[in-house]
Design brief:
- This protein has two domains: about 160 residues, Alpha/beta knot (3-Layer(aba) Sandwich); about 70 residues.
- The chain is about 50% helix and about 10% strand.
- The protein contains twelve helices and six strands.
- A six-stranded parallel beta sheet has the order 3-2-1-5-4-6.
- Helix 1 runs parallel beside helix 2, helix 1 runs parallel beside helix 7 and helix 10 packs parallel to helix 12.
- The radius of gyration is 19 Å and the shape is elongated.
- The termini are far apart.
């Protein structure tokens, strides 16, 4: 599986250095930084053998990450208190690792938020999945490097099974373009059905999460697109009569 890590507005050189070191521990090389504010020279001191990871880190925007990766995995310490809060509907690290294993042909990026306040709702909305580490206490906020260590450990537990030859089904996994097309037709049917416009972002977010969790093939998505396309045409014909 192809996995990268992104840090949003990292401030502390210690954390950034430790993240690079952790990535080296688990064999990850691609580190992305969104609007970084840390001391680069000091961060190198804490990266140890991960200095090359830090040196090759790229500064990007979250929108660029969205275009680059098949699946963005956001992280949060705040659980959804309402079943209607789709943006913070979360999975645990074990579930995340299983999804990555099943979709080993896809490109994943784990997105870690600000040390002080995490990811904002609009940033979580751009993610396909949201992962939370349940500490079983009232104090759920973890240091980003510590959180990443737990996530990468869960992923590494499944690595021996990933070495098997990829099946045709894995090779035919739905692409981001397929998923975008599905959402486009869902929005079209929603408009024709007078679905509340202010709920459409939540609808799109829910679809992205369901797709990411189920790991569909291109054929699965195209069947749904075909159904929605015909439904939209039927509604439009009915309106014209």
């Amino acid at each position: 599986m192809a996995i990268a890590v992104a840090l949003v507005e990292p401030q502390y050189h210690v954390n950034v250095g430790h993240v690079a070191r952790l990535m080296k521990n688990f064999g990850l090389r691609r580190l992305y930084l969104v609007d970084p504010h840390y001391d680069e020279v000091e961060a190198v001191r804490y990266a140890t053998h991960g200095k090359d990871v830090l040196a090759s880190a790229k500064v990007v925007t979250l929108k660029q990450l969205r275009k680059k990766f098949d699946v963005l995995v956001g992280t949060t310490a705040i659980k959804a208190t309402s079943r209607l809060n789709v943006l913070r509907e979360s999975i645990d690290p074990g579930q995340m690792a299983s999804i990555m294993h099943d979709a080993s042909g896809k490109d994943f990026c784990i997105v870690l938020g600000r040390e002080s306040s995490g990811l904002k709702n609009n940033e979580l909305q751009m993610c396909d999945l949201v992962c939370i580490i349940d500490t079983k206490t009232k104090y759920r906020t973890m240091n980003i490097a510590h959180a990443l260590a737990l996530l990468l450990y869960e992923i590494s537990k499944l690595k021996p099974e990933v070495a098997v030859k990829k099946s045709k089904k894995t090779m035919d996994l739905a692409s981001q373009q397929d998923i975008d097309l599905l959402i486009q037709y869902i929005d079209r049917v929603a408009d024709l059905g007078s679905f509340d416009s202010h709920k459409k972002p939540l609808l799109d977010a829910a679809v992205k999460k369901m797709v990411a969790k189920s790991v569909p093939t291109t054929k699965d998505i195209m069947l749904l697109v075909s159904l929605l396309r015909k439904s939209a045409l039927a509604i439009e014909r009915h309106r014209h009569h």
